[in-house]
Amino acid sequence: MKSVIQQFDDRTSQRFEEYEERMKDKRQKRKEERDKNIQKIIEKDKMEKTLEEKIEKVCLKCGVCGIEVGIATVVSELKDVASRILSININISEMINAENYRSAQSLTTSIYEEIQNVCEGNMAQEQVCNGLRPSNNPFWFKSDILEATRKGIDAAKDAETAAITANNATSTQLYSAIGYSVLAILIIVLVMVIIYLFLRNYLFIFALSTKKKMNKKCQYTKLLNQ
Fold it and tell me: What is the largest CA-CA distance in the chain?
């Protein structure tokens, strides 16, 4: 009887040791999977930061694009004024920049001062300079500049909005792709956890059931021997 009980204990101990060994291997695999998931999360964070930096740079480029379009629009709208003052070697396109294309007052003052500098004391171009002051109005070009800067501002806003919209569409697609990838990883991890829990419970129940059966056999054997 003692031999039977000893055999049962040995077999039970052996099975529990095997069970623990399997659990040890599974825990190691889970640890490796967890480390991989952590690494993926770190890489995802790095990717998102890189993406944010790229979007920020793109937005800056969008602003620059808007300014360039605005300047080009102002230059185009002032072609009549430009052709008149070009006769005294003043290039209006070189005078329009990112700082003054939105300000009619600043641009008017700059052009007026440039005309004054060229014409003042210049006897050779006196007749031409006088022609630039119709009805003694030194600011004859102001209304043209007002209209040009207004159109330039509108064109810059439209160009910037269009560029941002295009980049937002690209960013949305990238974020969607990242989101789907993360969701797929989470689903795979969840399925693996469920399978692990199921197997662990099954093996544990199987071991207990086997132990109970062995106990019953021992009890029957003991009763028969009595």
Answer: 142
